Protein backbone atom coordinates (compact mmCIF):
# COMPACT_ATOMS: atom_id res chain seq x y z
CA UNK A 1 0.00 0.00 0.00
CA UNK A 2 1.44 3.35 -0.99
CA UNK A 3 2.16 6.03 1.60
CA UNK A 4 0.00 9.14 1.94
CA UNK A 5 2.73 11.52 0.62
CA UNK A 6 3.15 9.32 -2.45
CA UNK A 7 -0.58 9.30 -3.14
CA UNK A 8 -0.78 13.05 -2.58
CA UNK A 9 2.12 13.70 -4.94
CA UNK A 10 0.65 11.45 -7.61
CA UNK A 11 -2.75 13.10 -7.28
CA UNK A 12 -1.32 16.62 -7.45
CA UNK A 13 0.78 15.73 -10.50
CA UNK A 14 -2.26 14.22 -12.24
CA UNK A 15 -4.38 17.25 -11.36
CA UNK A 16 -1.68 19.62 -12.63
CA UNK A 17 -1.72 17.79 -15.98
CA UNK A 18 -5.52 17.96 -16.03
CA UNK A 19 -5.60 21.70 -15.36
CA UNK A 20 -2.96 22.25 -18.03
CA UNK A 21 -5.02 20.34 -20.61
CA UNK A 22 -8.24 22.13 -19.63
CA UNK A 23 -6.52 25.50 -20.02
CA UNK A 24 -5.03 24.38 -23.33
CA UNK A 25 -8.54 23.53 -24.55
CA UNK A 26 -9.73 27.13 -24.08
CA UNK A 27 -6.56 28.59 -25.57
CA UNK A 28 -6.58 26.28 -28.60
CA UNK A 29 -10.30 26.84 -29.27
CA UNK A 30 -9.66 30.58 -29.38
CA UNK A 31 -6.58 30.03 -31.56
CA UNK A 32 -8.68 28.37 -34.27
CA UNK A 33 -10.09 31.76 -35.23
CA UNK A 34 -6.62 33.19 -35.83
CA UNK A 35 -5.23 30.16 -37.67
CA UNK A 36 -5.50 29.01 -41.28
CA UNK A 37 -7.59 26.03 -40.21
CA UNK A 38 -11.33 25.74 -39.72
CA UNK A 39 -13.27 24.37 -36.73
CA UNK A 40 -14.12 21.30 -38.84
CA UNK A 41 -10.43 20.57 -39.39
CA UNK A 42 -9.75 20.69 -35.67
CA UNK A 43 -12.91 18.68 -34.93
CA UNK A 44 -11.63 15.87 -37.14
CA UNK A 45 -8.53 15.76 -34.96
CA UNK A 46 -10.41 16.22 -31.69
CA UNK A 47 -12.56 13.13 -32.31
CA UNK A 48 -10.37 11.14 -34.71
CA UNK A 49 -7.17 10.95 -32.68
CA UNK A 50 -8.89 9.42 -29.60
CA UNK A 51 -10.48 6.78 -31.82
CA UNK A 52 -7.02 5.81 -33.08
CA UNK A 53 -5.59 5.69 -29.56
CA UNK A 54 -8.56 3.72 -28.22
CA UNK A 55 -8.78 1.40 -31.25
CA UNK A 56 -7.70 -1.74 -29.31
CA UNK A 57 -10.68 -1.27 -26.98
CA UNK A 58 -13.15 -0.27 -29.68
CA UNK A 59 -14.87 -3.69 -30.21
CA UNK A 60 -15.36 -4.19 -26.47
CA UNK A 61 -16.67 -0.64 -26.06
CA UNK A 62 -19.18 -1.04 -28.90
CA UNK A 63 -20.52 -4.22 -27.30
CA UNK A 64 -21.05 -2.40 -24.03
CA UNK A 65 -22.67 0.58 -25.71
CA UNK A 66 -25.32 -1.68 -27.28
CA UNK A 67 -26.79 -2.22 -23.82
CA UNK A 68 -26.96 1.47 -22.93
CA UNK A 69 -30.16 3.49 -23.13
CA UNK A 70 -30.52 5.62 -26.30
CA UNK A 71 -31.27 8.79 -24.33
CA UNK A 72 -28.05 8.42 -22.35
CA UNK A 73 -26.02 7.79 -25.50
CA UNK A 74 -27.55 10.89 -27.09
CA UNK A 75 -26.68 12.97 -24.02
CA UNK A 76 -23.06 11.81 -24.20
CA UNK A 77 -22.68 12.29 -27.95
CA UNK A 78 -24.36 15.70 -28.09
CA UNK A 79 -23.15 17.08 -24.78
CA UNK A 80 -19.43 16.53 -25.32
CA UNK A 81 -19.32 15.89 -29.05
CA UNK A 82 -19.52 17.97 -32.21
CA UNK A 83 -22.30 20.39 -31.06
CA UNK A 84 -20.35 21.29 -27.92
CA UNK A 85 -17.10 21.70 -29.85
CA UNK A 86 -18.64 23.94 -32.51
CA UNK A 87 -20.32 26.12 -29.87
CA UNK A 88 -17.00 26.53 -28.05
CA UNK A 89 -15.23 27.37 -31.31
CA UNK A 90 -17.89 29.94 -32.26
CA UNK A 91 -17.94 31.44 -28.77
CA UNK A 92 -14.16 31.62 -28.67
CA UNK A 93 -14.04 33.32 -32.07
CA UNK A 94 -16.56 35.94 -30.88
CA UNK A 95 -14.95 36.56 -27.50
CA UNK A 96 -11.61 35.54 -26.03
CA UNK A 97 -9.76 32.61 -24.53
CA UNK A 98 -10.24 34.12 -21.07
CA UNK A 99 -14.01 34.20 -21.46
CA UNK A 100 -14.01 30.68 -22.91
CA UNK A 101 -12.08 29.43 -19.91
CA UNK A 102 -14.36 31.26 -17.46
CA UNK A 103 -17.90 31.10 -18.81
CA UNK A 104 -18.13 27.46 -19.88
CA UNK A 105 -16.89 25.80 -16.66
CA UNK A 106 -18.48 28.52 -14.55
CA UNK A 107 -21.94 27.99 -15.99
CA UNK A 108 -21.93 24.18 -15.76
CA UNK A 109 -22.90 23.98 -12.05
CA UNK A 110 -25.71 26.45 -12.73
CA UNK A 111 -27.19 24.46 -15.61
CA UNK A 112 -26.64 21.07 -13.97
CA UNK A 113 -28.52 22.26 -10.89
CA UNK A 114 -31.38 23.62 -12.99
CA UNK A 115 -31.64 20.48 -15.15
CA UNK A 116 -31.47 18.17 -12.14
CA UNK A 117 -34.23 20.14 -10.43
CA UNK A 118 -36.33 20.00 -13.60
CA UNK A 119 -35.82 16.30 -14.31
CA UNK A 120 -35.54 14.77 -10.84
CA UNK A 121 -36.93 17.47 -8.53
CA UNK A 122 -33.64 17.68 -6.62
CA UNK A 123 -33.09 20.72 -4.44
CA UNK A 124 -29.71 22.44 -4.07
CA UNK A 125 -28.57 23.41 -0.61
CA UNK A 126 -28.59 27.01 0.57
CA UNK A 127 -24.80 27.09 0.24
CA UNK A 128 -25.00 25.92 -3.35
CA UNK A 129 -27.66 28.51 -4.17
CA UNK A 130 -25.43 31.27 -2.81
CA UNK A 131 -22.51 29.89 -4.83
CA UNK A 132 -24.61 29.82 -8.00
CA UNK A 133 -25.72 33.39 -7.33
CA UNK A 134 -22.05 34.39 -7.31
CA UNK A 135 -21.56 32.64 -10.66
CA UNK A 136 -24.56 34.45 -12.16
CA UNK A 137 -23.33 37.83 -10.92
CA UNK A 138 -19.85 37.12 -12.25
CA UNK A 139 -21.11 36.19 -15.71
CA UNK A 140 -23.37 39.26 -15.71
CA UNK A 141 -20.38 41.47 -14.89
CA UNK A 142 -18.37 39.89 -17.71
CA UNK A 143 -21.16 40.38 -20.25
CA UNK A 144 -22.07 43.84 -18.97
CA UNK A 145 -18.49 45.03 -19.29
CA UNK A 146 -18.63 44.50 -23.04
CA UNK A 147 -22.14 45.90 -23.45
CA UNK A 148 -21.23 49.15 -21.70
CA UNK A 149 -18.01 49.66 -23.65
CA UNK A 150 -17.90 51.80 -26.83
CA UNK A 151 -18.61 49.72 -29.91
CA UNK A 152 -19.59 46.82 -27.69
CA UNK A 153 -21.50 43.70 -28.51
CA UNK A 154 -19.00 41.16 -29.82
CA UNK A 155 -18.01 39.66 -26.52
CA UNK A 156 -21.60 39.73 -25.28
CA UNK A 157 -22.68 37.58 -28.23
CA UNK A 158 -19.69 35.33 -27.66
CA UNK A 159 -20.59 35.02 -23.98
CA UNK A 160 -24.12 33.97 -24.95
CA UNK A 161 -22.74 31.28 -27.26
CA UNK A 162 -20.39 30.07 -24.53
CA UNK A 163 -23.33 29.87 -22.13
CA UNK A 164 -25.05 27.65 -24.68
CA UNK A 165 -21.92 25.49 -24.72
CA UNK A 166 -22.10 25.27 -20.93
CA UNK A 167 -25.72 24.16 -21.18
CA UNK A 168 -24.84 21.46 -23.72
CA UNK A 169 -21.95 20.23 -21.57
CA UNK A 170 -24.34 20.03 -18.62
CA UNK A 171 -26.42 17.55 -20.62
CA UNK A 172 -23.27 15.47 -21.04
CA UNK A 173 -22.59 15.72 -17.31
CA UNK A 174 -26.00 14.30 -16.47
CA UNK A 175 -25.60 11.61 -19.12
CA UNK A 176 -22.24 10.64 -17.67
CA UNK A 177 -23.80 10.23 -14.25
CA UNK A 178 -26.58 8.07 -15.64
CA UNK A 179 -24.51 5.80 -17.87
CA UNK A 180 -23.65 2.23 -16.95
CA UNK A 181 -20.64 1.92 -19.26
CA UNK A 182 -16.98 2.35 -18.37
CA UNK A 183 -14.96 5.52 -19.14
CA UNK A 184 -13.40 4.17 -22.35
CA UNK A 185 -16.79 3.22 -23.76
CA UNK A 186 -18.12 6.64 -22.76
CA UNK A 187 -15.29 8.30 -24.69
CA UNK A 188 -16.10 6.13 -27.72
CA UNK A 189 -19.76 7.16 -27.42
CA UNK A 190 -18.62 10.78 -27.73
CA UNK A 191 -15.95 10.47 -30.41
CA UNK A 192 -17.33 7.89 -32.86
CA UNK A 193 -20.59 9.66 -33.87
CA UNK A 194 -18.93 13.08 -33.69
CA UNK A 195 -16.11 12.03 -36.02
CA UNK A 196 -18.61 10.45 -38.43
CA UNK A 197 -20.80 13.58 -38.45
CA UNK A 198 -17.81 15.86 -38.93
CA UNK A 199 -16.51 13.75 -41.81
CA UNK A 200 -19.96 13.76 -43.43
CA UNK A 201 -20.33 17.52 -43.02
CA UNK A 202 -16.88 18.10 -44.52
CA UNK A 203 -17.32 15.80 -47.52
CA UNK A 204 -20.75 17.26 -48.35
CA UNK A 205 -19.53 20.84 -48.02
CA UNK A 206 -21.75 21.62 -45.05
CA UNK A 207 -18.70 22.60 -43.01
CA UNK A 208 -15.69 24.24 -44.71
CA UNK A 209 -12.42 22.38 -44.39
CA UNK A 210 -8.92 23.22 -45.50
CA UNK A 211 -7.90 19.58 -45.16
CA UNK A 212 -10.63 18.56 -47.59
CA UNK A 213 -9.28 21.11 -50.06
CA UNK A 214 -5.84 19.52 -49.84
CA UNK A 215 -4.08 22.15 -47.74
CA UNK A 216 -0.64 20.96 -46.56
CA UNK A 217 -0.28 20.02 -42.91
CA UNK A 218 1.70 22.55 -40.89
CA UNK A 219 2.97 22.87 -37.34
CA UNK A 220 -0.20 24.58 -36.14
CA UNK A 221 -2.33 21.62 -37.15
CA UNK A 222 0.04 19.27 -35.34
CA UNK A 223 -0.34 21.37 -32.20
CA UNK A 224 -4.13 21.11 -32.53
CA UNK A 225 -3.78 17.33 -32.88
CA UNK A 226 -1.62 17.18 -29.77
CA UNK A 227 -3.78 19.48 -27.62
CA UNK A 228 -7.28 18.63 -28.81
CA UNK A 229 -6.87 15.04 -29.93
CA UNK A 230 -4.39 13.56 -27.47
CA UNK A 231 -4.69 16.04 -24.60
CA UNK A 232 -8.42 16.76 -24.42
CA UNK A 233 -9.54 13.51 -26.02
CA UNK A 234 -7.43 11.07 -24.00
CA UNK A 235 -5.06 12.46 -21.35
CA UNK A 236 -7.49 14.78 -19.53
CA UNK A 237 -9.90 12.00 -18.69
CA UNK A 238 -7.19 9.59 -17.54
CA UNK A 239 -5.36 12.20 -15.47
CA UNK A 240 -8.57 13.42 -13.85
CA UNK A 241 -9.48 9.84 -12.99
CA UNK A 242 -6.15 9.42 -11.19
CA UNK A 243 -6.58 12.77 -9.42
CA UNK A 244 -10.04 11.80 -8.15
CA UNK A 245 -8.72 8.44 -6.93
CA UNK A 246 -5.75 9.90 -5.06
CA UNK A 247 -7.14 13.26 -3.88
CA UNK A 248 -10.88 12.67 -3.70
CA UNK A 249 -13.54 14.28 -5.88
CA UNK A 250 -14.07 17.49 -3.81
CA UNK A 251 -10.37 18.37 -3.69
CA UNK A 252 -9.87 17.52 -7.37
CA UNK A 253 -12.85 19.66 -8.38
CA UNK A 254 -11.55 22.54 -6.26
CA UNK A 255 -8.11 22.40 -7.86
CA UNK A 256 -9.82 22.24 -11.25
CA UNK A 257 -11.09 25.77 -10.68
CA UNK A 258 -7.50 26.94 -11.24
CA UNK A 259 -7.93 26.27 -14.96
CA UNK A 260 -9.64 29.62 -15.75
CA UNK A 261 -6.87 31.41 -13.85
CA UNK A 262 -4.22 29.68 -15.96
CA UNK A 263 -6.13 30.61 -19.12
CA UNK A 264 -6.29 34.29 -18.12
CA UNK A 265 -2.58 34.36 -17.29
CA UNK A 266 -1.58 32.58 -20.52
CA UNK A 267 -3.90 34.39 -22.95
CA UNK A 268 -1.95 37.66 -22.87
CA UNK A 269 1.51 36.34 -23.82
CA UNK A 270 0.28 33.56 -26.13
CA UNK A 271 -2.63 35.25 -27.93
CA UNK A 272 -2.04 38.94 -27.21
CA UNK A 273 -5.34 39.32 -25.36
CA UNK A 274 -5.98 42.19 -22.97
CA UNK A 275 -8.13 41.47 -19.95
CA UNK A 276 -10.20 44.35 -18.54
CA UNK A 277 -10.33 44.93 -14.80
CA UNK A 278 -14.08 44.29 -14.64
CA UNK A 279 -13.65 41.03 -16.53
CA UNK A 280 -11.14 39.99 -13.88
CA UNK A 281 -13.66 40.94 -11.17
CA UNK A 282 -16.32 38.87 -12.90
CA UNK A 283 -13.86 36.02 -13.29
CA UNK A 284 -13.04 36.08 -9.58
CA UNK A 285 -16.77 35.86 -8.79
CA UNK A 286 -17.21 32.94 -11.19
CA UNK A 287 -14.22 31.01 -9.83
CA UNK A 288 -15.24 31.74 -6.22
CA UNK A 289 -18.75 30.54 -6.99
CA UNK A 290 -17.46 27.31 -8.54
CA UNK A 291 -15.18 26.72 -5.55
CA UNK A 292 -18.03 27.31 -3.11
CA UNK A 293 -20.33 25.04 -5.12
CA UNK A 294 -17.83 22.17 -5.01
CA UNK A 295 -16.90 22.67 -1.35
CA UNK A 296 -18.16 20.13 1.14
CA UNK A 297 -18.49 21.80 4.54
CA UNK A 298 -17.76 19.77 7.62
CA UNK A 299 -20.91 18.81 9.42
CA UNK A 300 -20.96 19.03 13.21
CA UNK A 301 -21.30 15.75 15.02
CA UNK A 302 -24.78 15.11 16.36
CA UNK A 303 -25.92 12.53 18.88
CA UNK A 304 -27.24 9.36 17.33
CA UNK A 305 -31.02 9.18 17.21
CA UNK A 306 -33.29 6.19 16.83
CA UNK A 307 -33.89 5.33 13.20
CA UNK A 308 -37.60 5.95 13.56
CA UNK A 309 -36.97 9.61 14.43
CA UNK A 310 -34.57 10.37 11.60
CA UNK A 311 -36.01 12.75 9.02
CA UNK A 312 -34.20 12.22 5.73
CA UNK A 313 -33.12 15.40 3.96
CA UNK A 314 -33.51 15.91 0.22
CA UNK A 315 -30.40 14.90 -1.71
CA UNK A 316 -27.90 17.64 -2.39
CA UNK A 317 -26.98 18.38 -6.00
CA UNK A 318 -23.67 16.70 -6.64
CA UNK A 319 -20.65 18.40 -8.14
CA UNK A 320 -20.40 18.91 -11.87
CA UNK A 321 -17.18 18.04 -13.71
CA UNK A 322 -15.44 20.84 -15.50
CA UNK A 323 -15.33 21.01 -19.26
CA UNK A 324 -12.66 19.39 -21.35
CA UNK A 325 -12.47 16.34 -19.13
CA UNK A 326 -14.18 13.71 -21.27
CA UNK A 327 -14.09 10.92 -18.69
CA UNK A 328 -14.11 12.43 -15.16
CA UNK A 329 -14.32 9.20 -13.20
CA UNK A 330 -12.22 6.33 -11.95
CA UNK A 331 -11.62 3.48 -14.39
CA UNK A 332 -14.52 1.13 -13.90
CA UNK A 333 -16.60 3.87 -12.31
CA UNK A 334 -18.64 6.51 -14.07
CA UNK A 335 -20.22 9.18 -11.94
CA UNK A 336 -20.10 6.99 -8.89
CA UNK A 337 -21.74 4.00 -10.58
CA UNK A 338 -19.99 0.73 -11.08
CA UNK A 339 -19.09 0.14 -14.71
CA UNK A 340 -19.86 -3.23 -16.19
CA UNK A 341 -16.77 -5.26 -16.86
TrEMBL record:
It comes from the Bacteria. The chain crosses the membrane at residues 42-59, 71-93, 99-120, 129-149, 155-172, 184-207, 219-240, 252-271, 277-295. The keyword Amino-acid biosynthesis does not apply. Keywords: Cell membrane, Membrane, Transmembrane, Transmembrane helix. Its main location: membrane. InterPro entries: Diverse_Substrate_Transporter, EamA_dom, EmrE-like. Residues 300-341 are annotated as: Disordered. Residues 330-341 have a biased composition (Low complexity). It is found in: Cell membrane. The keyword Mitochondrion does not apply. GO terms for cellular component: plasma membrane. Belongs to the EamA transporter family. PANTHER family: INNER MEMBRANE PROTEIN YTFF (PTHR42920:SF11), OS03G0707200 PROTEIN-RELATED (PTHR42920). This is DMT family transporter.
Amino acid sequence: MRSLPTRLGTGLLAMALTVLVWASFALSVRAIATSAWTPADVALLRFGVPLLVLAPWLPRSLRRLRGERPAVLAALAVGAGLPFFLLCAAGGALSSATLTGLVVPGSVPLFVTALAALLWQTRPSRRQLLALAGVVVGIAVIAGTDLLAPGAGGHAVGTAVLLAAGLVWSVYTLGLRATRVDPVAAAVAVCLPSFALTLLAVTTGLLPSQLHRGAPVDGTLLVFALVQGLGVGVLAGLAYAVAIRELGAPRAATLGALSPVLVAVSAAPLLGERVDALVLVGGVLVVAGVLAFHARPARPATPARPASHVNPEPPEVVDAPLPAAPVPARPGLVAGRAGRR
